[in-house]
Write a structure and sequence with these properties.
The protein is elongated and about 65 Å long. The strands form two sheets. A six-stranded mixed β-sheet has the order 2-3-1-4-11-5. A five-stranded mixed β-sheet has the order 8-7-9-6-10. It is built from nine helices and eleven strands. It folds into two domains: 125 residues, D-Maltodextrin-Binding Protein, domain 2, CATH 3.40.190; 87 residues, D-Maltodextrin-Binding Protein, domain 2, CATH 3.40.190. It starts with 9 loop residues before the first helix and ends in a 12-residue tail after the last helix. With 251 residues, the protein is α/β, with parallel strands linked by helices. The structure holds 1-O-pyrophosphono-5-O-phosphono-alpha-D-ribofuranose (PRP).
């Protein structure tokens, strides 16, 4: 199906059915739509769908943002390519039925989605970090601390839980630059290999959370398209690290 073809409603379908006796029930619904995140998680996410038998030839150079594929004669799926922070938005609103996103991004988004499966890739740690001189500092005695981050919500909770008042400076990238030029005393950011911290003379101070990629599902789609989504989750579970499943796994 051409990705630009508008999907018809059941009512329109029944009207058209009188005109075209060959219309199939496949036309009644959109293909299952999967939101994939651009960036470093795209390659393993696309690999997961290839493992499930889809071509999923998306990469970070792709300019086509919506791709429809058909498998065999009938099963159709649609991939959309979004910024990681937008994946939970597409899924919460039902513009995508399913998404793949890092837990760091999901938690920061606060979006209400069903999260049935940990995928075992995209592992990283959300860390408080800073210059070595900050490591042994007693932050309870500090005033006017500034913390740069892409995660203002998670950072606020972290400091509030410790009863510490800080000024949060939201940035959208290259967070590790902030302490080097005096914009902030500390950063909260994800650490994967540790290279960015090391190469900028920063050190880990406290680990806030362990994160990995998760499959997320729109709550309504999870009820209405249970069979399709369950099939997807079962296939993805086989490709994911079994030690990472949530208790209860596939509901
Ligand atoms: C992320 C993160 C760190 C870096 C950590 O940045 O914000 O800067 O990766 O990875 P490392 O521990 O392997 O060095 P990203 O590459 O997404 O780019 P950004 O700085 O523009 O957000």
């Amino acid at each position: 199906m051409d990705p630009m073809t508008p999907t018809i409603t059941p009512l329109e379908h029944s009207r058209r059915g009188q005109e075209n006796a060959h219309s199939t029930t496949m036309e009644l619904r959109n293909p299952l739509t999967i939101a994939l995140p651009k960036g470093r998680m795209l390659a393993p996410a696309a690999e997961l769908f290839r493992h499930l038998g889809w071509r999923c030839e998306l990469d970070n150079g792709s300019r086509q943002l919506l791709v429809t594929e058909t498998k065999g004669n009938e099963e159709t799926i649609r991939f959309l390519l979004a910024k990681p922070a937008d994946v939970p938005v597409y899924v919460e609103y039902g513009a995508a039925d399913v998404g793949i996103v890092g837990q760091d991004v999901l938690w920061e988004s606060g979006r209400d989605v069903y999260e049935p499966l940990h995928l075992g890739f995209g592992r990283c740690r959300l860390m408080l970090a800073g210059r070595p001189s900050q490591r042994d500092r007693d932050f309870r005695l500090a005033t006017g601390l500034r913390v740069a981050t892409k995660y203002p919500g998670l950072t606020r909770s972290y400091f509030q839980q410790r009863g510490l008042s800080v000024e949060i400076i939201p940035l959208t990238g290259s967070i590790e630059l902030a302490p080097l030029v005096g914009l902030a005393d500390l950063v909260v950011d994800v650490v994967e290999t540790g290279r960015t911290l090391r190469e900028n003379g920063l050190v880990e101070i406290d680990q806030i959370a362990d994160c990995q990629a998760v499959l997320i599902v729109n709550r309504v789609a999870h009820r209405l398209r249970l069979a399709e989504i369950r099939r997807l989750i079962t296939g993805a579970t086989a490709g994911a690290d079994p030690t990472n499943q949530r208790p209860g796994g596939v509901e």
